[in-house]
Amino acid sequence: MNIEEEIKIVPMIGNIKIKDEGIIEEAELEFAPGLNIIVGSNASGKTTVLNSIEKQSDHIWSLEQLKASSAASEKIMLSLIGITQTPIHKCFLIDNLIERLSRDKVKILLQELERTKNQIIITASNYVEISKIKANIIDTKDFKLKRIGKK
Predict the structure, then answer these.
(1) For 23, 37, 72, 100, which has the most beta carbons within 10 A of its beta carbon?
(2) For residue 90, which phi and psi values (nearest 5 degrees)?
(3) Could you give the CA distance from residue 22 to residue 44 in angstroms, rounded to a whole number?
(4) Which residues lie below 8 Å from residue 69, measured CB to CB, with a gap of 6+?
(5) What are the pLDDT digits (tens) for 94-113?
């Protein structure tokens, strides 16, 4: 599966409440316009947040569907950065992309995405350098997680 096939697009989001989903017992999240980065260690709930957004959205598009739509087809370029820079007033959900790129490419991608004209929610492991990126950072340390394996 290529990266474009994994990107989901939903209507823009202001906030979301998650209760008893996956490893997350409870979390309330606020998303800003532009770039939002969910950071945390493995199995800390990053993907669960994206899955919950999909479940709570009234519509989900794939990148291919968006490109094929008559309203957007002329505006959207083929590259990820081109697509996210085209103002279409949607939210792009991108999971596990950063982990597949070299550090240099991650830095370039994040610098480009911080200038987005859309809303982007992307996940990143703790080791990714994001201190100089202009983004809304959501840390999974703030989630109330289920205690798995403890009685």
Answers:
(1) 37
(2) -125, 170
(3) 10
(4) 61
(5) 888 887 788 788 888 888 88
Closest CA to 122 of 66, 47, 60, 54: 47
pLDDT in tens, 57-98: 988 887 777 666 645 444 443 455 566 666 677 898 988 888
SS3 106: helix
The DSSP-derived string for 3-67 is: HHHH-EEEE--SEEEEEEETTEEEEEEE--SSEEEEE--TTSSHHHHHHHHHHH-S--EEHHHHH
Q: Characterize 1-32 residue by residue with b for buried, 16 or more Cβ atoms within 10 angstroms of its Cβ, and e for exposed.
A: eeeeeebbbbeebeebebeebebbeebebebe
| 33: its two tokens | 């316009």
